[in-house]
Design a protein that fits this description.
The chain is an alpha/beta fold and 425 residues long. 28% of the residues lie in helices and 28% in strands. It is built from 9 helices and 18 strands. It has helices spanning 24-35, 102-116, 229-242, 293-308, 321-336, 341-350, 354-362, 367-374, 379-398, and strands at residues 2-3, 13-20, 43-46, 57-62, 74-76, 78-82, 87-91, 96-101, 119-121, 125-130, 135-139, 145-153, 166-178, 187-192, 202-211, 214-223, 250-263, 275-277. The relative contact order is 0.16. Residues 1-8 and 419-425 have low confidence and may be disordered.
């Protein structure tokens, strides 16, 4: 079925640009196309689900004054990084940390769809064929084929081969409403490493306050395996208690769960001449942190700029090659044990301006700044991890290629209930 208004048809749909997947990456592309006033471009969105409402939250840093500012739920000039040894309050100027919930972004994308005259095909994609001249998006269940000059594919997929380190960023968050002021809306907690650390990996909590009575409180782990639903709830309850919050005075309004790959396995951003992958599938997830949104946003801006100039909609690599190498080394050091996660991040923020660390995590620092960041780490463990990574790369070249396992789905069972009469913020 394809939709423009309420019409449906099974004939082939011819477009200049097909967006396969309608989540955050596609929404950012649509908003960027609309903002640049691109008209006359035939666009289709192919997704079995029409995304609406709050299904996820993105947090990112950048300079104030961007096009997303009216959509933000909150932003903070100051953040805290907490370890068992110290509590640091970081001034992010000239940057700020910001929270964007999915509902406003999906609404913005819907406005863009109307102005751009987008065709929405509500169907799952069976496969994408590319002959070098046009790409054919074949839908399942007898749906129409979409013939496109270019396909931007944001569907999740594993890397092309297994990484030397295969971690996951997995998390559960509670949107907590308090019956009295308990949160500081002027300051977010970026990372709080006082949580119980897993035997293999890193854990931390964080707090994103929207007001003095409402905040997202989340427990996150970096590591190779997921928890059970009860395990996430126990970890979150423990962090809530660590913050000194009284559960009797709190209501869990919403629950968020997620799993993001953290791996040095390669994601192929250009699998064929007319197909470009976006989001995690296109390499937008930073392997050492799991942050994705800023790179997705850069991809969207570059695509819109290219189309406005009459060029192919092919964004630059999400991160420089040297950053991908540094991430591989850092992941190996954290995974093999010579470097502890709390110590690693504590040294980064202790020995560098906060702005430099955040830009480094976004992949926008210069080589000179990266040398300063690297000097913040303990040298011997990082040298050992570098040597081990080089040896492992050599072994990979001698082995036959193997498929990478898929990223597991988030664990949703055991999540704290949302009272029907208290749903929504």
């Amino acid at each position: 079925m394809w939709q423009r208004g309420r019409m449906s048809h099974t004939a082939p749909v011819d477009v200049d640009l097909a967006l396969v997947g309608g989540g955050g990456a596609a929404s950012l592309v649509l908003a960027a196309l609309d903002r640049r006033g691109i008209r006359g471009l035939r666009v289709a969105v192919v997704d079995p689900v029409h995304r609406r409402g709050q299904d996820r939250t993105w947090a990112f840093w950048g300079r104030p004054g961007g096009d997303l500012d009216p959509l933000l739920s909150a932003s903070w000039r100051q953040v805290e990084v907490v370890t068992p040894a110290a509590r640091r309050t970081l001034d992010l100027a000239p940057l700020r940390y910001a929270m964007l919930r999915s509902g406003p972004l999906y609404d913005r994308a819907a406005e863009a769809e109307r102005r751009l005259g987008v065709t929405r095909v509500v169907a799952a994609v069976d496969r994408v064929d590319d002959d070098g001249e046009r790409a054919l998006v074949r839908t399942a269940g007898g749906g129409p084929t979409v013939r496109a000059g270019w396909v931007l594919d944001s569907r999740p997929r594993p890397p092309a081969r297994p990484g030397r380190t295969r971690w996951l960023q997995h998390f559960r968050g509670w949107w907590l409403a308090a019956d009295r002021p308990v949160f500081d809306p002027g300051r977010a907690v970026l990372m709080d490493f006082r949580t119980r650390q897993p035997s293999r990996g890193v854990s931390f909590g964080y707090v994103l306050p929207v007001s003095d009575r409402y905040a997202l409180v989340e427990y996150t782990e970096f590591g190779p395996t997921l928890l059970s639903g009860a395990g996430y709830d126990a970890a979150l309850a423990g962090y809530r208690d660590l913050l000194g919050l009284d559960p009797a005075r709190l209501t869990v309004r919403e629950v968020e769960n997620g799993v993001i790959p953290m791996t040095d396995g390669p994601f192929v951003a250009r699998p064929s001449p007319r197909v470009v992958r976006l989001g995690t599938a296109g390499g937008a997830t930073r392997p050492s942190t799991g942050f994705t949104f800023s790179a997705m946003r850069r991809q969207a801006e570059q695509i819109a700029a290219a189309l406005a100039a009459g060029r192919p909609p092919v964004p630059a690599p999400a991160y420089p090659r040297r950053h991908r190498w540094m991430d591989a080394v850092a992941l190996r050091a954290l995974d093999r044990g010579p470097v502890g996660g709390p110590e690693f991040f504590d040294r980064l923020f202790d020995r560098n301006p906060a702005e430099r660390v955040l830009r480094f995590l976004d992949g926008t620092t210069t080589p000179a700044e990266e040398l300063a960041v690297m000097r913040s780490t303990r040298p011997l463990p990082m040298v050992a991890a570098t040597a081990g990574d080089a040896l492992h790369r050599l072994r990979d070249r001698l082995r036959p290629p193997r498929p990478a396992p898929p990223v597991p789905a988030p664990v949703r069972d055991g999540a704290a209930p949302v009272p029907p009469d208290r749903a929504g913020a």
